[in-house]
Design a protein that fits this description.
27 strands, single chain, TIGR03016 family PEP-CTERM system-associated outer membrane protein, signal, mainly beta, 24-stranded antiparallel β-barrel, Porin, three-stranded antiparallel beta sheet, about 5% helix, CHP03016_PEP-CTERM
């Protein structure tokens, strides 16, 4: 019997024994798609693995575990002039022997993206979402999967529907506006997430600005409104609105007088609630702009604030806004000023060459877990095969606007640095990823630093996560990969540091192609978590050694 036939036969038996009807729905829907369409592509794969673990926990006996895993996955992509759709689904069945006891589990994950343009360049209707498993404990971001600390994972469903209108036909302005509805639910977790999460959000945002060819009078107005209903999880509603704008009159070549203004307000709870929280901040200013082109602008202003907080009411501060394209491949945008909590900044930087790509950003926002999940940030440095986290299975696209093919995803080597919870936070986050691709060697270095200040309770969390990966092609059939991941978290409650945790994970992987569609894989990994917390925040001290042997078959 051929190896590929053996794997598929094994898979069919496992599915008949263990897969529930609802898990087959994504597979059935895609199998009915019109395969003959020229713009339709479809890929499928199945991977069978044997995993051996040695786990040591604080004040517990060592565990020796042996697991058999079967993972089928499918991906479908359809493109036309007016309609684009992509769906990816993966089912995981595992059977484990834990200290002579047997246990079976199964998990289904999927993502979808749909976009329909019924009116060219005017109206876009879109939908996206998925089902995934997320951590209820941030310190388990690299210490939890379906084989380890699976009780710290919560099934999370997200769906977002949006309508975008573009107005480009007017002679004096360009405008775009988006209205969206999103829902995020996370199952309750008895130890960490007793209430679960069930949020529904309605948001609207828009931008109107002068034409790019405007020379004497240049202006722009931005607005954003969001309301998150958290009543289903016994939390108060969260409402936010932001607005900003500028108007610049050019008084000399490349120089102009600029007026600016901003508004932001946040409300937790309804207006008649006894314990509702409202924070509002406004400012206006005037200054000068230096403008070489639409992509090379620097503005400096003197501003005065108007807020309910006595600490910064009627304050005068300097604001700086800059957007500068050094070349078609390198650009930076930055904004520095003051918001209701004090000094603020937002920075975005991109560098793209034939071999190296660097994307970095720093942002400050008042947000929630559900908003972070429904509108995720993608750095998009590498494109990888769906279901794989090995850099040897990835490549660096030639363009930042690369369109994914079937079976491809943008890789996220940075950890999200958030956990499932139903709290409003002031988040300050820095992310950076540098990728290199050569003829045989590929590598990446990623860094993510965040500070989360809780708005409704006295709590603050600082998180630093980093990772580096190296992949090397050994001839035509071999690929060698190695990676190191790290996360350190410190939590403060009532001004006392009472939670600190540090986790390392290292791994080395070798994959060998046995044919065009069949490959074998071996991976060795080691994990160590040290926790100095006296609560359940950091998780228990943990050490794990793991060996993974697998066989993968791809169908295209």
């Amino acid at each position: 019997m051929e190896p590929g036939t053996m794997v598929i036969t094994m898979l069919n038996r496992k599915i008949r024994m263990s897969m529930k009807g609802r898990h087959l729905l994504p597979l059935a829907v895609m199998s009915l798609s019109p395969m003959a369409l020229a713009d339709f592509s479809f890929t499928a794969d199945v991977e069978s693995s044997g995993v051996f673990q040695d786990v040591k926990r604080t004040e517990q006996e060592n565990q020796e575990l042996a697991s058999i895993i079967v993972e089928p996955g499918v991906s479908a992509l359809y493109r036309s002039r007016k309609f684009n759709a992509s769906v990816q689904s993966r089912y995981t069945f595992l059977e484990r022997e834990i200290n002579e006891d047997n246990r079976s589990d199964d998990y289904t994950e999927y993502t979808y993206n749909l976009a329909w343009t019924p009116l060219d360049r005017f109206l876009i209707l879109s939908a996206n979402g998925g089902l995934s498993y997320n951590n209820v404990n941030i310190n388990s971001n690299i210490a939890s999967d379906f084989l380890l600390n699976e009780d710290e994972l919560s099934k999370t469903r997200s769906n977002r529907f949006a309508a975008t209108v573009n107005l480009e036909e007017f002679s004096f302005l360009d405008a775009t506006s988006t209205i969206s509805y999103s829902s995020v639910t996370a199952d309750r977790n008895e130890e960490f997430l007793a209430q679960g999460v069930d949020n529904k959000s309605l948001s609207a945002n828009g931008t109107a600005q002068s034409k790019n060819n405007a020379t004497d009078f240049i202006w722009q107005v931005n607005g954003d409104y969001s309301k998150t209903d958290r009543s289903a999880s016994n939390s108060r509603d969260f409402e936010s609105r932001q607005g900003s704008g500028f108007a610049s009159y050019m008084v000399a070549p490349s120089w102009g007088i600029t007026a600016v203004g901003q508004h932001e307000a946040y409300q937790i709870g309804r207006e008649l609630d006894l314990f509702n929280t409202i924070r509002e901040f406004n400012s206006i200013g005037i200054g000068v702009s230096y403008r070489q082109s639409a992509t090379r602008v620097i503005t400096i202003t003197a501003n005065k604030s108007d807020t309910d907080f006595e600490s910064n009411d009627n304050d005068t501060f300097v604001g700086l806004d800059a957007e500068w394209a050094f070349s078609p491949r390198t650009k930076i945008s930055a904004s520095f000023g003051t918001r209701f909590y004090g000094d603020s900044a937002n920075v975005n930087f991109t560098f793209n060459s034939k071999r190296i790509r660097w994307i970095a950003s720093y942002s400050e926002s008042v947000t929630t877990f559900s908003r972070l999940v429904s509108e995720p940030q993608s750095l998009g440095v590498f494109v990888c095969s769906a279901g794989s986290t090995l850099i040897s299975d990835c490549f660096q696209p030639s363009s930042l606007s690369y369109e994914l093919e079937a079976g491809e995803v943008f890789a996220q080597f940075t950890d999200p640095n958030f956990q499932i919870e139903d709290q409003v936070i002031l988040r300050k986050a820095l992310t950076s990823t540098i990728g290199f691709t050569g003829k045989r060697l590929s590598s990446q270095i990623s860094l993510s630093v965040s500070n989360d200040e809780y708005v409704e309770i006295v709590r603050e969390r600082d998180t630093v996560s980093a990772s580096t990966s190296v992949g090397y092609k050994l001839g035509r059939n071999g690929k060698l990969s190695a990676s190191v991941r790290y996360i350190q978290t410190e939590q403060t409650r009532d001004l006392d540091v009472n939670g600190e945790s540090e986790t390392w994970r290292t791994s080395i992987n070798y994959r060998h192609a046995l044919g065009r569609n069949l490959s074998t894989n071996i991976e060795l990994s080691y994990l160590d978590r040290d926790n100095t917390d006296n609560t359940t925040f950091g998780g228990r001290d943990l050490e794990e050694k793991r060996i993974n042997l697998s066989l993968k078959y791809k169908l295209k």
